[in-house]
Structure formats: structure tokens, C-alpha cells
Amino acid sequence: MIRLQTGERQTVAQYIHSICGISLDASKDYLIESRLNRIAVELGCHTFNDLVSQARSDASGAIRRQIINEITTGETLFFRDSAPFEVLRHKILPELIDRRTRPGASIPIRIWSAACSTGQEIYSIAMLLKDLLGDTGRYNIRLVGTDISDQAVARASEGVFSDIEMARGLPEAFRERFFARHPRGWKIRDEIRAMASFRKMNLMEDLAALGKFDVVFCRNVAIYFSESDKAKLFRGIEQRMESDGYLMIGSMESLTAVSPQFEAKRHLRGVYYQLRGGARPGGRV
């Protein structure tokens, strides 16, 4: 096993930050070693500096993509931390539907899952919508999942999950209703799969092509960013939100010091954020 040497950690950490925005201090050396060893060994590298050199000189970008896939693979499961989904079901969606309802027009519901990983979060949202709304014909639903890892996006798009993944957070009733058996586990049914689209995206780059959203889920992403990159990230998200939209972040995260333009609000056991002065009773701003 290749060990990260003290003299090379800055070079490796700077390269990782440059390609995906993740900041890794000395306490995360184990993450570099555990996730990048396989790539380094396969390429015949003797040090992690060698790996960075090969990645920089690889015109195809294949090594860079491998490193991104390994470093950004995060913990994910269906309905992770139930509180945000309770807030979505009992607070956010009823308010949105009330404000967006217009005579003779379909009701828009646009939700973005940033750093969606292998898709469990956006599919959880899709299942919740289907369960709550029943016939979705009168709604114009747009669900988008983005991730910097092309490997994660490919898996999310396929919608196939192992027995272990299915056992983590997914209610049995939803498994029976929204999934079908597959040789590699379970596959999301077409009615749910069709509700979501996925694309590769670096959250540190221009997000304008995504359009606008009523709800943004960006949970447990910014914990790996520097303070300046966090501020940049949430400025970008602000530009993608309707002025009366909603932002969900991780339960252990806070925007108070980083993005004061967002105001924390509480409902049931959950916390959500809105732009200060953005939401007004009775209509869209």
C-alpha cells in the first residue's frame, strides 16, 4: 500500500481541490490513501505525486475522472435523515402547490438534487411526490440530479440498486410499489425513473444551464469545501432558486456565517432555508 508522504500532501490536496473543489486537510490523509491507492497501483505509481503527474499529463482526462469518481463517492441511502422529507411532504410541497396554482395551468414543481451520487435522494423525492400527489398529470414536475462523478451519474441513470442498498432507508411498501426485481438487485420502475433526469456537473462551475428551481437539496456537500468555496457554492445555488424557493442542507450544516442571504426556518423536526424577504404569503415573488 502506498503511503501519503508529508512532503507531497499539499501537491495532492491542491490537485484534488482544483478538479472538484474538495478541500482535504491533514486529517483527511486516510481518505487520499484509501481511495486513490488502487488507481496509483494500477498505473504503476510509487508515490501519490507520481499519480498527480500522470493525471496532469493524461490528455484523455481518464485518470482525472477516475480520481474524481473515487474521491467524491459519498455515503448515500434512500430517505437519508427522514426530517428533510417530512418537511418536504408536510410544509414545502403544500405551500408550493398553493402558490403555484393557476386556473387552467399545470402546477410546476422543480427540484434539484445537487451532488446526487447514485440517485437515492432524487428517487426518494420522486417516490414521495408520487405517493403524495397520486395522479401527477396536473403537475409539471422536473426533477434533476447532478454529480461531478460520471460513474455516479451513470449508476443513477440506470436506477438499479443492490439488496444492501435497498435495505437502507427504503420502506418495504415503497420497494414493492416502485421497484421490480433485477438480476443485480432491484430496478426503479419506469414511472418513477421517467420523473428524473441526471447530468454531470461541477458545483464550482457555472450553473446557469440548469435553469430555476423551487426546491434545492444540497446536503452534506459543502462540509468538504473551504469557507470561500462554500460561499461561492451557495451564491451559485441562490441564482438557481426562485425567490420564494426552499433550500435543504445537511442536519449538521449551517449557513449563518457563510451565506447570510439565507434565513433558517424550522418545521417539525427539520430546518430549511429561504432567501431573506423572498417568500410572501399569497403568491410568487
What this model shows, in words?
This protein is α/β, with parallel strands linked by helices and 285 residues long. The chain has two domains: 9-72, Chemotaxis Receptor Methyltransferase Cher, domain 1 (Orthogonal Bundle); 82-275, Rossmann fold (3-Layer(aba) Sandwich). The protein has helices spanning 9-20, 29-42, 48-57, 62-72, 82-100, 120-133, 150-158, 163-166, 172-178, 190-193, 227-240, and strands spanning 107-114, 139-147, 160-161, 179-182, 185-188, 196-200, 213-217, 241-248, 262-267, 270-275. Strands 6-2-1-7-8 form a five-stranded parallel beta sheet. Helix 2 (29-42) runs antiparallel to helix 4 (62-72). Mean pLDDT is 92; it is low at 280-285.
Query: What is the CATH topology of the largest domain?
Result: Rossmann fold
Overall CATH class of the largest domain: Alpha Beta
Shape, principal axes of CA atoms: globular
User: Radius of gyration, Cα only, in angstroms?
Assistant: 20 Å
Biggest β-sheet, characterized?
5 strands, parallel
In short:
The protein is α/β, with parallel strands linked by helices and 285 residues long. It is built from 11 helices and 10 strands. Helix 2 (29-42) packs antiparallel against helix 4.
How is the topology of this model organized?
Layout lengths: L8 H12 L8 H14 L5 H10 L4 H11 L9 H19 L6 E8 L5 H14 L5 E9 L2 H9 L1 E2 L1 H4 L5 H7 E4 L2 E4 L1 H4 L2 E5 L12 E5 L9 H14 E8 L13 E6 L2 E6 L10
Parallel strand pairs: 1-2, 1-7, 2-6, 7-8
Antiparallel strand pairs: 3-5, 4-5, 9-10
